[in-house]
Amino acid sequence: MRVLNLGCGWQTSDRCINIDWSLPVRLKASRVGRLAAPLVLNPTQRAAFRRMSSQVQGHDLRKGIPFEDGSVDAVYHSHVLEHIDRSEVPGFLAEVLRVLKPGGVHRVVVPDLERQARAYVASLDASLASPSAAAAHEETVHTMIEQMVRREAYYTSTRPPFRRRLENLLLGDARKRGETHQWMWDRVSLPRELEAAGFVSPAVVDNVTSRIPDWRSYRLDEDDAGSEYKTDSIYVEALAPSAG
C-alpha cells in the first residue's frame, strides 16, 4: 500500500512516505543534512534522528500534497490538523481527498478537546472543594491552553542565551514555525468537518484500530513499548467516496 504520513516530525515509519517541512525531516532527506545533523541537534534529538525512517520527503504542505490525483491508498496525520488555521482546513482536507484512491482511508489524530475540557471542569471542581488542589488545577489550565498562546518555540526556549537569540532571529516565533494550536476538535466536530469535505463513513476509533490493513505494524500510534504514542488524542477515520 502507498501510505502518506503527513507532518510526520520525528514519528516516521519505513512503511510510509513520511512528509514534513520540519528541520529534522529536511536534514534526513538530504545527504548534506544527514552529515550536518550532529552539529545542530542536541543529544536527545540526535537519538530520535537516528531512529527516523529514511523514507522521508521534505515538503511544505501549505503548497499542497505533492502526489497525483487518486494515487495513494491511505493518508495519515497526527497532531497536525489543530495547527492549521481554521479557514485553511477545508483546503487541506480537499488536498487529502484529491490524492486518495476511491475508498482510500483518511486517518486523523488530534488532541481531544472533550477530554481536556472534562479534565478542566473536574480539576476546577476539585480545587473549589479543596484549596490544596489549586496547584494541580494550574497545571490542568496550562495543559489546555499553553500551546494556543505560546510565543517562543519550545526547544528554542531551552537553548543557551546566544543560541536562543540566534534561533529566534533566523526561525521566528512559535506561530511562524507552526507550533501553536489554531483550532481544537472533538468526536462531534471532526467527523462533521470530514463529511463536509466530501469524506464518507467517519468513525471514531482507537490507536490500534484502523481500516488501514495491518495498521499496528506501522507503529505510528504506538511507542517502542507498545503504549499509546500520543495520549489524550482522539482518532477518527473516514473514507474517500468509492468510484461511481
Estimate the strand proportion. 15-25%
Number of self-contained structural domains: 2
Number of strands: 7
Question: Any idea what the CATH superfamily of the largest domain is called?
Answer: Vaccinia Virus protein VP39
Low-confidence spans: none
What's the CATH class label of the largest domain? Alpha Beta
**Looking at the structure, what is the overall shape?**
globular
Order of helices and strands: EEHHHEEHEHHHHHEE
N-to-C span? 22 Å
For this structure, the CATH topology of the largest domain is Rossmann fold
Q: Return the average pLDDT rounded to an integer.
A: 92
Q: Based on helices, strands and strand pairing, what is the structural class?
A: alpha/beta
Report the major sheet. Answer: 7 strands, mixed
Assign the CATH architecture of the largest domain. Answer: 3-Layer(aba) Sandwich
Distinct helical segment count: 9
Radius of gyration: 19 Å
- Which strand order do you get reading across the main beta sheet? 3-2-1-4-5-7-6
The share of residues in helices is 25-40%
